[in-house]
Specification:
119 residues; mainly alpha; 6 helices; globular; Arc Repressor Mutant, subunit A; single chain; 3 strands
Length: 119
């Protein structure tokens, strides 16, 4: 920045700013396979509310990570896809996939233990 102001104390903060939250990385992971309509994303992520999905997609669009294409037809069709900038997140998302596959059972086991102890 021209005035020397740096909004992030660490580069990880910049990454988290773009893909942080419960749904953004999952949405982006689904878009790695190609463009998807809103209803397709909703079907792939049944736990996300329509409002939350809309908000997350808007934020990803504002950050130039996701492109929203509106097709002028009846009924109107809207598709979401990764921008070129968004595609640069692929290695991060694939690393998250690998890590999650490797440690998912440990995480579930630990959370179950905590629930049992607090219940």
């Amino acid at each position: 920045m021209a005035n020397g102001y740096q909004p992030y104390g660490c580069p990880v903060e910049a990454t988290i700013d773009v893909i942080g939250g419960k749904w953004k990385a999952v949405i982006l992971f689904q878009l790695l396979e190609g463009p998807k309509r809103f209803s397709e994303i909703r079907r792939l992520l049944p736990a996300v509310t329509q409002r939350m999905l809309t908000l997350q997609l808007r934020e990803l669009e504002e950050d130039n990570v996701v492109h929203r294409e509106i097709y002028q037809q009846i009924p109107p069709k809207v598709e979401y896809s990764l921008t070129e900038f968004g595609k640069t997140l692929e290695p991060i998302l694939l690393s998250m996939l690998t890590w999650g596959e490797r440690y998912k059972s440990q995480i579930i086991e630990r959370k179950d233990t905590i629930k049992t102890q607090s219940g």
